[in-house]
Amino acid sequence: MYYLIRLAGRIYRTHILQMKQYFTVLLLVIINVNAYSQDITTSYISTTAAINRYSAISKQPFYIFPETREHPLKWNDSLQETWLQKDHTKSSFTLHAQPGEYFVYQVGVWATKNELNDVNIRFSDLKTTDGKAISSSQISCFHKGGINYLGKPFTKKITVQPGKVQPLWIGIDLSDVSKGIYSGTVTVMVNNRSQTLTIQLTVDGDPVEDHGVNEGKRLSRMYWLNNTSGINDEITKGYQPVARNGNILQILGRTIAIAPNGLLADIKSYFTASNQHISQNGTSILSNAFRFIIEKEDGTIVSLKPGDIEFTEELPGAVAWKVKNTAAECELVCSGRLEFDGFVDYKLALKALKQLKVKDIRLEVPVNKTKAEYMMGLNHEGGLRPETWQWKWDTTRNQDALWLGAVNGGLRIKLKSDNYVLPLVNIYYDFAPLHLPPSWGNDSKGGVNVSENATSVIVNAYSGDREMKAGKVLHYDFELLVTPFRTISSDVKYGDRYFHGGGTNAFSKIEKAKKAGANIINIHHAEDIYPFINYPYLDENVAELTQLVKSAHADSLRLKLYYTTRELTKNIPEFQAFYSLDGELLYPGPGNASRTEALHPKGPNEWLIKNVREKYIPAWYSLVNEGKFKGAIDLSVITTPNSRLNNFYIGGLEWMLKNLTIDGIYIDDAALDRFTLKRARKLIDQYRPNGRIDLHSWNHFNSWAGYASCLNLYMDLLPYSDLVWIGEGRDYNRMPDHWLIEVSGIPFGLPGQMLEGGGNPWRGMVYGITNRAGWGGNTPEELWKFWDGFSLREKEFVGYWEKDCPVTTDNKMVVASVFKGKKESIIAVANWSKEDHPAALAIDWYALGLEASACSISIPGIKKFQEEQALQSVSALNIPGGKGYMIVITENK
What we know:
By secondary structure, the chain is α+β, with helices and mostly antiparallel strands. The protein is built from 17 helices and 59 strands. Helix 11 packs parallel to helix 12 (674-687). It is globular, with a radius of gyration of 30 Å. 50% of the residues are buried.
């Protein structure tokens, strides 16, 4: 998003593109970028004209016809006359494939007059005259279902609107199929009516590898829609299996105790104060057990009696349990599942056994006050927690989760129900906002109150008064994330040096990265050899991308690609097939009526208006400025979250890891869920053990994006990310508590980096973070040299928030953190005021492990950061406004 949106000042960079739209559409046709779309020169007539011209056909309730993969059906209100002139229910249709490929073709269904409900399709075996066969079990229709993003089979219902044309995409798995001419039938059935096509499939030529997915033009990559790679019970690298001892569950750095009613009795964190290590002694995040309370109309509390706890699943990656709690008035089935990363999924099904009038149904979570210093979510930006907070359900805002925590222990609570659907994110939130949960929301009566007493902070998620009829079931579901997820890797934080940006010529970035001292290059889309968003493996640019990765590796550089799922370019061979799935993959928005204030205030691009027309949301668009695609325009549409596109994404990732040998991915906002990113993490660890995932997000806390805090929104993705780059749209004049929670990544066990305007390097060093090379403004090259010269990777980081931090200041606008070494330590001190401020640093020499009389103190020169200075002491410093120092304390030899 950062190429287009800057909320600070609301600066738009889109008007230049708007001026060029009409010219670039013509260029698309000239350079054949859109070669995979339906041929616009072929003779088409409207379905209305077809009814009049082909009366014999139009008398039927529907009409079917075959088409090759090379000519995807496009418009649902038009027909090519050749489809009407030759009746393939009476003559065979010939198709050609190669052994081993995943072969696809289409069957068009025209609803001549009335709506077609529940269209079904049936395949016969395909047989040769000498007895060879392709089983019908190897043939499937994508429109009737497949394997969902969780790896589960599902079916779909096909409906065709009156007068419309619906393509049905069919796949045939030709693995282990020998050469031959295979014949069979495909039958379409609607309301006891059927029509049958005869298919003759010639399998000939050289066998193809990997189902044919190496060539996108085959459309064999549609095979990825049912991909299950990465779906297994294994844990991801860096974590440990879930261990159970009675009702106590142990994961990396945390333990969870289950109460008799199935809710949580206690959570302990064993992480040290800045998440550098895991200690032997844990501290409780909760001050008491969770309480689910049903308060009747007269104020009495329903007394639920728990049954026995049943452990329903015990795997290395997860443990699940269930408890049935009963009372005369109702029963509560509590099902929980803990995964190895700290994710807990709770499903609470409350059933009324008799007429029940309630004053309130609520969940109370008592958090240890020392583990609730900070707060993020429910309309509160990340930072220090207020004494009280009140929030009501309002689905115009992307808010359903609250994180409370200290740096080394916290809890995110996300409230859900059985109607939950992952909403759209970023500036598209209004097109598909949160669904009000019937249980928690209760017609907007529900909300969350946060209050405190002497020892606890109480989260009260209430739903208000209601009446439940006998047999009524309400789902009071919620998710938990126990933070931090892991210790912070010094090798990643101080050893990974990113080059990001630096123009659109990809090959030039290798030398630029080397010159800057970077060792990881992120290649964005909208570049010469990666022109179109979220489709890096276009046939025309694969060879150059492969060479780019080889060249980077030859110089000991790692190379990652921009790759996410929020939006998808229309310049892909599968676009029409994906669109034909009627909203399953591409979000079915208002189409030509779509408007977004930031990118499309006057409506979609003309190409989308003419060629897609309905059921889409226009998204990113840009001109390609150099390379073989120069002059082309990238147009994209918003995708549907948690669809089979996630499977396609994983299939594409695995292909790139094996064939391009990329070193990971860069995610810029996401429609991805945690399950899919876990799959991605497993594949990256399998193929590229030193691979990385870094997560970027624009600041969502505004009206466009539903006032969401980015790290709260994407927290369930953090266990599988190596680094967060959350600086876009950030105000680096915000106070240190905001930096700590929403920028640094530290409370979640991740390194962070700055972005907007290059960040503030002096304040960033208090958290051990910099900008990226190539991004411009406050470039980090000189700081990286300082890191290496003073071995920051080998030092212990002690944040200013730690009660045992060996350095403190006497000025609330000046904070100091320490990089502690055996014979040398470094103090990072920064001023959070615009004005110069005096500050005295108090050093606990014993805690630092040094003798004051045996040490020298200096401010070494760092180009564009600080001038060299000799210091006698740190008791009377003047800290420049908005800046600071790196102060070195060295034990004299």
